[in-house]
Amino acid sequence: MNEILTTIISKYNYWGFILLMMIGLYAMMVKKNLVKKIIGMNIFQTGIILFYVSIGVKKGATIPIISHGHGKEKHVIHAAEYINPLPHVLMLTAIVVSVATLGVALALAIKVYREYDTLEEDEINKKIRDQAK
Amino acid sequence: MSEHFPALVIIVPLISAFLISATGWLNKRLCFPIAVFSLTVSLFASIGVLMMVLENGTVQYRLGGWAPPWGIEYRIDHLNSLVLVVISAVAVLNIVTTHKPVQQDFSGKEGPFYALYVLFVTGLSGIVVTGDAFNLYVLLEIASLTGYALIGLGKDRAALSSLNYLIMGTIGASFYLLGIGYIYLVTGSLNIADIANLLPDIYDSGVVLFAFIFCMIGLFIKMAFFPLHAWLPNAYSYAQSSAVSLIAPLTTKVMIYVMIRVTLYLFTPQFSFVFLNISKPMVWLSVLAIVMGSLFALSQKSLKKMLTYIIVAEVGYMVGGLWLGNRQGITGSILHIVNDAAMTLCLFLAAGNILYMLKSDSFEDMKGLFVKMPFTMAAFTAGALSIIGVPPFCGFFSKWYLISGGIAAGEFGFVGALIFSSLVNVVLFFRVIEIGYYEPFTNHPNAHQKDEETLFNEAPRDMLVPLLMAAILLLALGIFTGHIVTAIIQFAIPTGII
Amino acid sequence: MRILGLVIVILCGSILIYHTSDFPDWGHPASPASTHVSPYYIEKALDDTAVPNIVTAVLADYRGYDTMFETTVIFCAGIACFFLLRITRRMEPSVTLYRHLPTGITLRIEKGGKEPDDSNIFKRIDTQWVPYDLIINTTCRMVIPFIQLFALYVISHGHHSPGGGFQGGVILGASVILFAISTDLRTAISRMSERLGAFLSATGVFIYAGAGALCLVLGANFLDYSALAPVLNVNSVMARSHGILIVEIGVGLAVMAVMIWIYYNLSSAGRHDEGL
Questions:
Q1: Structural contact between residues B364 and B416, judged by C-beta atoms closer than 8 angstroms
Q2: Interface ipTM
């Protein structure tokens, strides 16, 4: 019993990201509405972002801003006191990328809507088939 | 100055993209010359880098002056420098042809078009030179985002297929990012060379295995490897030809480069080929890709669509070549990156010229095209012969390496698929050439005059010259294959592979 | 399809969850991610760059090359939205709307109708009509300057506290978008035109890449800000700190401009200057 509990406590964070990713993947595969697909894509990316951020966690450490950074006197800085800054940097980049992708995706969705007057995939496919006839 | 060449390859187009975007609002005519100039500078810088690599071996460039595992570095060996030259050369050749069609297809948006064009090339060159796994992801997204935009502004179904491409492409890139995250979790590093040093101790960890699977799935989606190819044909065939003749030759090829980089240099051949022992299924997957790509190509009724399915088949060639796991197969794979970029460029430029003059690319409208556009069709024939694999042209040689690699590895299914695909290509292209050469031109809807002499209506000169240069390049690459292999490619493969 | 999707997702999810047993424990101080590369940043960032906020130091200096392309991604998105959506030919709208300023009543004039001529009392508004609301209008007008002030603080104080160019730029952009929502797009564009947005976004990224290229001209590697020391008249560590500030300002400018630019194009589906 104790063993299971320790596993859960040490791993549940990673399960959360997998859950989010799978929700996003499901939305992208199953949903017929293009905007819902785009939302699913965003959830998927958010899952990955959470994964990276949980890599950066260090128990017993604080945010990576050095507290005595202003004064002239030197303080010894221990790496164990501050959490890992690198995943945060990387995820800043990934968030920006996902925002940019979202913008372009919405622009394309507007363009699709302009052309077919709908964002439902089946209706679009039906219109395309009708045009072909 | 020469030590900064690796940086110049990226910076010059990058900065000029901002200039282009700003000048697009002031004077549209300046955009084109700036773009041509910057890409030409980039081409010369990349040739300079290739020379440096040939002379001194691997070139490293520390960005921001920080040492590798902490900062980002360029690490340019024989493999990247070759691909780098291919990218810049294709970009320069292609941009010359875009001058007239862009004014017609994207009128009023020349500034953004050229800015996106140059950024796309920057993104791809950045992917190729970087030595940092995460940096590769960022540049991958630049190349993809600009690609979605360039494809999205096309004819009828372009926006829809570009949106599909965006969703698929984002999943692909995200999977790659997740794979890198898994690697970072167990190694704590992002530098490719550093990771390769750290990995051998933890080969048996499930995390590394999953990292490999995620990276591969992501890259397979991005390169349109067979079961995951669904986005490619529509995206490429509805896009405007001035955009697609840049994107089609480069995107899939660069993704294959990334796959080679990841399997051989990030995960090391020891892990990918020996430890995982998945070469056989991978080769069979690529056999499937080749066969299905060729069969789909057979069933198409328009030129561009047919070419897109040929790309799907060609991706199978290169993936299979890598996973043969022997020196000849990988040589064939790398050589085919170069050759296929040139061949695809030649064919798509020819298709672009035909579309520009005829406003259609269905086979029915191509009757009598040899009379009307003899030079374009000659170049098209050269590209077709090369893709089929007729000796003096370059396509033959890479196929030769792939086939001999297949025989050496005992993968006769792969050899059979290559030969099958060549035969299908013969059927495909001779059908087009036959329509163009033998069928009379009289019932063509655009033909106003029936008189044979006035029918001669070749594409404008700035579209024709790059096409002919691409066609000559096919011959030149074929003739100098031996030099390319002995001077560059044989050093690009890690020494452990026999 | 629905059930198939569910089965695939559950299968993948359970395989992934099962394999988390190989992961290092969450938050373990001795995990590879916390011991291999990152300790160097934590211990050396202050000595190397004189920036107490390690995230900023890594973002803009150690991995500044990444961040340059991150800004470029944003720039790409701005151009891409413009390129995809913008309708270049102007369309005369069939209906024009005017607002009677003293009462807030909206006048709808069909094509060919008589347009009001007293421009002090009547104000032309968007056809994408926004209801006039005095309370919203006044509140936003009061709040926006504070939002912008805070944004400038976030940009300039990124060295010492959480913040930096991206965050500050987004807040700045949000303030203009708030203005556009609370009044209407036409008014927002009259304050900050699309052309200005395009120029500012290019300028912002150009500041970043240009600062890097300047280092190259001064003889160091690309983005090695310590080469700026003789230009800025400080020592090389402080030069890095100032270099970070310069690029943060560039990032802030670019992000702000692109956010506004994307909003203009998305919210009006590319038709925001009809009839202007």
A1: no
A2: 0.93
